[in-house]
Write a structure and sequence with these properties.
Strands 10, 12, 13, 14, 16, 17 and 18 form a seven-stranded mixed beta sheet that branches. The model is unreliable at 151-166 and 220-228 (pLDDT under 50). Strand 6 and strand 7 (95-106) form a beta hairpin. Helices cover 21% and strands 46% of the residues. It contains three helices and 18 strands. Helix 2 runs antiparallel to helix 3. The chain is α+β, with helices and mostly antiparallel strands.
């Protein structure tokens, strides 16, 4: 049984707080017997909730008292803390980001009493966004979007170097597929032995199921590779530019695709697919579970049909609107809300070309 009770009282509880706002209040302590308190502390922090493993972020932490409370004593300790620039409150499907003022007393040989007041942090309209604070963990961004990423000058590669790069890529893919292909061979052998009556029916069924699964995996990978190679063969080297990669809700993304086809091609359409998806993970012993939920997606046609001439540079431009109520990007270990933009060029009687870029959305 706790020897004292804590309560948090906010001086001016706002419906919504903004970055830079100050939250003031006091912690009220009521002791029902003499209590030795090693430390009474309060803090302003955010944490994740939902199906993923909880992640905690401390914005500010204060020590309010160390000492002894006498039986029947009623004490009050004032505090004042300032909100950082993010991350912002979010309530989704598998992921929630919540802010709270928390007080806790460290009592030896007893349950530590606690008190929590949940509050809401949202951006102030018109403020300049702090991207690093808003996403929570910038190191989880793609390398080219990290704050410490260095600008690399774009250099034209020679035909020989491009060919070498393609050869290396194909070599890596071959090594990657070597294991699944070997397993597929064993699975096929198991199926043949089953039909010959050389292995029990139970093992035969298992080998048959394994064969189907491996055919799907290997076949899907090979099909994707062949489609990409065929699209590149007709369109040549395709360059995709998306600006800005850090975008505010209600603004637009400018998209530009440049290519110089090796063969004449009939472009039927160019479609942009904008998507926001929650991804969370949780571990329990050796068991790991992942949950995904698309929270927003839209398709925008940015170009209609046209003919692309052989060996003639072609450029396709368009824009994609980000909705004003879009949830902001959030990145923390095992808890993410990511935005991606995928462009698909529909080529008549030929595999489509696709390109994908991750963007960061801020309110």
């Amino acid at each position: 049984m706790a020897k004292c009770e804590l309560n948090i009282h906010l001086e001016d509880r706002q419906a919504v707080y903004h970055p830079g706002d100050v939250v003031r209040g006091h912690v009220e302590v009521q002791a029902d017997r003499e209590v030795e308190c090693k430390e009474l502390r309060t803090g302003l922090r955010w944490q994740t909730r939902g199906k993923g493993e909880p992640v905690l972020g401390q914005a500010e932490d204060l020590t309010l008292f160390e000492g002894t409370w006498r039986a029947g004593e009623h004490r009050r300790y004032d505090f004042e803390m300032t909100f950082p620039a993010g991350p912002f409150t979010y309530h989704g499907h598998h992921l929630e980001v919540v802010w709270e003022v928390r007080a806790e007393a460290d009592i030896p040989w007893a349950l530590d009493p606690k008190a929590v007041e949940e509050i809401v942090l949202q951006p102030r309209p018109g403020d300049e966004p702090d991207w690093e604070a808003a996403v929570a963990t910038p190191s989880l961004l793609p390398k080219e979007l990290r704050p410490d990423a260095e600008e690399q000058p774009a250099e034209e590669r020679s035909t020989a170097s491009k060919a070498a790069g393609n050869a290396v890529g194909l070599g890596c893919l071959a090594v990657f597929l070597l294991g699944p292909v070997a397993l597929l061979g064993l699975a096929l052998k198991g199926v043949v032995d089953f039909y010959r009556g050389e292995i029990p029916s139970t093992a035969g069924v298992a080998w048959s199921l394994a064969t189907v699964a491996l055919l799907v995996i290997v076949g899907g990978g090979v099909l994707k590779l062949v489609s990409a190679l065929m699209a590149s063969r007709k369109l040549g080297e395709v360059t995709l530019e998306v600006e800005p990669r850090f975008v505010r809700t209600g603004d637009s993304l400018q998209v530009k695709i440049t290519c110089q086809p090796n063969q004449e091609a009939e472009l039927q359409s160019v479609v942009a697919h904008l998507k926001a998806e929650e991804k969370v993970r949780r571990s329990s012993g050796k068991r790991k579970r992942s949950y995904k939920q698309v929270v927003y997606e839209q398709e925008t046609e940015i170009a209609l049909g046209r003919r692309l001439a052989r060996d003639m540079p072609s450029q396709i431009e368009g824009k994609v609107d980000v909705p004003p109520d879009a949830p902001p990007t959030f990145l923390a270990p095992r808890n993410e809300l990511r935005w991606t933009l995928t462009l698909r060029m529909d080529i008549a009687r030929w595999p489509d070309w696709t390109g994908k870029r991750e963007i960061v959305v801020h309110r």
